[in-house]
Design a protein that fits this description.
By secondary structure, the protein is α+β, with helices and mostly antiparallel strands. It has 24 helices and eleven strands. Strands 1-9-8-2-3-5-4 form a seven-stranded mixed beta sheet. A two-stranded antiparallel sheet has the order 6-7.
Length: 544
C-alpha cells in the first residue's frame, strides 16, 4: 500500500511526531480511501492516547468531515442507523499472500498488526458538536461541523481529545512469516488543541474546557474519570477543578441508567487499582449512587480480631483479589463479603459481635447486584459466596463426613472460589498469611473426599431409576427418599451401592407420607459438623 499526502485544505496546527507504530492495515485503508476522496480523516480518541502511551490500542475510531451519506458512498457495505453521524464500516477479512483468508487462531503473532478478529466494523464519525443533554447522557441535538477542533471540543478529557493523521514512509514485509501483512512505520501528525499530550506526561485526567459543563452533558463521565485513573496505572490523578466538579455534581449520577453505571463500575473493579477506585468513588460522593450499602461500613470499628474498620477491611480484601487477578465474581465477593456487618453489630470495642452477618450480607448482596442489573448468574453466584464465606474448619475436629457435608452444602464447583474469598478475608484483616495450616489442611481434606458422592445426582440410584423401581410418579416422595439416601451416603460412601440403595428405598417407600417426610426432615436438618454446637462456640469466641 503506497503513501498518501495529508489534504492541503487542513488549516490546523499539527504537532509532528516520529513514532514507529504498527497500524492495522484495515484502518490505514479506511483513512486512505477517505483522503483519496478529498476528505479529512483522523484516528481519534482512545487509540491516539494509547499510541502515545506506548500501549496497543484496544479500539480504533475514525473521525472525518465527510457526511454520513458520503461515507456510505465510499464504503457501500457500511451501516448507518443512528442520528449521531456514526457509520459502521465493515472490515475486510485478513488475507494470505495466496488470497486465502488467514486463520488468526493459528497465527497469534498477527495481533500486533491487525484488529482483534472479534471486531467486524470500525466506527467512522462525522465531525460534530452536541447540545441539549436533557437526560444527562445523550445529546438531543447533533450538528455536523467542518473542523476537527470543534469536534474535539465536545469530548470528555484532554487525553481523549486528540486526533492524528499519519504519513507512511516505510513499508516492508517480515521475512520469517510469509503470511504477515506489512508493518507500517508512520509519522504521526497530532492535533492537540487542549493539551492532552502535556496531561499524558503529567498523568492528569482533566476535563475538556469547563468541567461542570462536561459532566452536566454526560454524568457518566464522572465514573469514567475514576476508571481512567485506575486503568492507566500508578501515579495518575484527577485535576483539581475536575475533581471539584465531580464532587459538586455527583448527584447527577442518579439520572444515569443502572446498566450504564454497572458497566463502568465493572470496568473499575477489573482494573489493577480497583480498591483505590472504590475509595475515590466514596471521596467524590459517587458511591452513594452505586452501592450505598458499602458506605455503612465507613468508620465502623470491629473487634479484637480486626485492626481495620469494616470499610477498610472490605477494600483490602478486594485489593488482595485484584493482586491475584481473580475473576469479577471473586472481586465482587471479596468487596461485599462483610457488607452485612454494620447492620448486625452489637456492642462496641474489642468484644463487639456481628452474629449472622453473612446471611444479612447475602440478602444485601442479592438486592444491590439485582438493582445494578447484573446478570442472574452473577447475582446468584456472588450471593452464594457471601452467604458461605464464613465456613468453619479446625484440624482434628471435622471428619471426612463433615467435609462431605460442607461440599454438599456449598457445591463442589464453588468451593475453590470460597477458599479464595477466605484468603481475601484473612489478608483484609491484617494477618500475614492468606493460607495458614488449617486452610491447607482443609484443601487436603477436600481433595481427599472430592470424588465421594455429595449430591443426589452422584448416588448410584438416580431419580429415574428410583421411580421405575417403586412405580412412582414424579412428586415429593422421590425427593424425600433421595434426600434420606444421600444423608446415609454422606456418612459412609461405601453405602453408595445400587443394590443396597434399592433395598433401603423399598423400606422407605413402605412408610406413609407423614412418616417419610419426618424422616427426611430429620435427615436434612441433622446437626452437620459445620453447623454444630462446636462451631457455634467457635463463632462466639471470635465474635462473628
Amino acid at each position: 500500500m503506497g503513501a498518501w499526502k495529508i489534504p492541503t485544505n487542513s488549516v490546523y496546527t499539527m504537532y509532528v511526531m516520529q513514532i514507529n507504530v504498527s497500524i492495522p492495515k484495515e484502518i490505514l485503508k479506511i483513512l486512505q480511501k477517505l483522503h483519496e476522496a478529498g476528505f479529512l480523516a483522523y484516528i481519534v480518541g482512545g487509540c491516539v492516547r494509547d499510541i502515545l502511551l506506548g500501549a496497543e490500542p484496544k479500539d480504533w475510531d475514525i473521525t472525518t468531515n465527510a457526511k454520513p451519506e458520503q461515507i456510505q458512498k465510499i464504503f457501500p457495505e457500511s451501516v448507518y442507523e443512528n442520528n449521531f453521524g456514526t457509520v459502521l464500516v465493515k472490515l475486510a477479512p485478513l488475507i494470505n499472500t495466496d488470497n486465502t483468508q488467514i486463520n488468526t487462531d493459528k497465527h497469534p503473532h498477527l495481533s500486533a498488526y491487525h484488529l482483534d478478529t472479534s471486531i467486524s466494523t470500525v466506527e467512522v464519525t462525522t465531525f460534530r458538536t452536541e447540545s441539549g443533554y436533557d437526560d444527562y447522557r445523550r445529546p438531543s441535538e447533533v450538528k455536523f461541523v467542518e473542523t476537527i477542533e470543534e469536534d474535539l471540543a465536545r469530548r470528555d478529557f484532554t487525553i481523549n481529545a486528540m486526533a492524528a493523521d499519519m504519513t507512511t514512509h516505510n513499508t516492508h514485509h517480515t521475512t520469517h512469516q510469509a503470511d504477515l501483512s506489512p508493518v507500517v512505520s508512520c509519522q504521526l501528525h497530532i492535533i492537540d488543541p487542549f493539551g492532552g499530550q502535556k496531561d499524558l506526561e503529567k498523568k492528569i485526567i482533566c476535563a475538556v474546557g469547563n468541567a461542570h459543563e462536561r459532566f452536566s452533558e454526560d454524568a457518566l463521565r464522572m465514573l469514567r474519570a475514576v476508571r481512567f485513573v485506575c486503568q492507566l496505572g500508578e501515579g495518575w490523578v484527577i485535576e483539581t477543578e475536575t475533581q471539584d466538579a465531580i464532587t459538586k455534581q455527583s448527584h447527577l449520577l442518579k439520572n444515569i441508567s443502572q446498566e450504564r453505571i454497572r458497566d463502568e463500575f465493572t470496568k473499575i473493579i477489573m482494573t489493577p487499582q480497583a480498591a483505590w477506585g472504590v475509595e475515590l468513588l466514596r471521596r467524590y460522593g459517587l458511591l452513594q449512587y452505586i452501592i450505598p450499602e458499602l458506605l455503612e461500613g465507613v468508620e465502623v470499628g470491629q473487634n479484637k480480631h480486626h485492626i481495620y474498620t469494616v470499610w477498610e477491611h472490605n477494600l483490602r480484601a478486594l485489593a488482595y483479589a485484584v493482586s491475584k487477578n481473580y475473576s469479577l465474581e471473586i472481586r465482587l465477593g471479596s468487596l461485599l463479603h462483610d457488607v452485612g456487618k454494620p447492620r448486625t453489630k452489637a456492642g462496641e470495642g474489642e468484644n463487639s459481635t456481628f452474629y449472622q452477618h453473612e446471611y444479612v450480607g447475602a440478602r444485601m448482596t442479592r438486592d444491590l447486584l439485582t438493582r445494578l442489573r447484573f446478570s442472574k448468574d452473577i447475582v446468584q453466584y456472588v450471593t452464594h459466596l457471601v452467604k458461605n464465606h464464613l465456613f468453619y474448619y479446625n484440624v482434628g475436629e471435622v471428619s471426612d463426613a463433615g467435609v462431605r457435608r460442607f461440599l454438599s452444602r456449598v457445591g463442589i464447583e464453588t468451593v475453590d472460589d470460597l477458599i479464595k474469598i477466605r484468603e481475601a478475608d484473612r489478608i483484609g484483616s491484617g494477618v500475614p498469611k492468606a493460607v495458614p495450616y488449617k486452610l491447607r489442611h482443609l484443601l487436603f481434606m477436600i481433595d481427599k473426599v472430592r470424588k465421594d458422592p455429595i449430591s443426589p445426582k452422584m448416588l448410584a440410584l438416580n431419580g429415574s431409576q428410583l421411580m421405575e423401581l417403586l412405580k412412582l410418579a414424579p412428586g415429593p416422595r422421590v425427593g424425600w427418599i433421595l434426600g434420606i439416601l444421600l444423608e446415609e451416603v454422606l456418612d459412609d460412601p461405601t453405602k453408595n451401592v445400587y443394590e443396597q440403595l434399592c433395598e433401603q428405598a423399598r423400606a422407605l417407600h413402605a412408610l406413609s407420607d407423614a412418616q417419610l417426610q419426618d424422616r427426611y426432615t430429620k435427615a436434612t436438618q441433622r446437626k452437620q459438623e459445620y453447623e454444630s454446637e462446636a462451631e457455634a462456640e467457635i463463632k462466639k469466641k471470635y465474635h462473628v
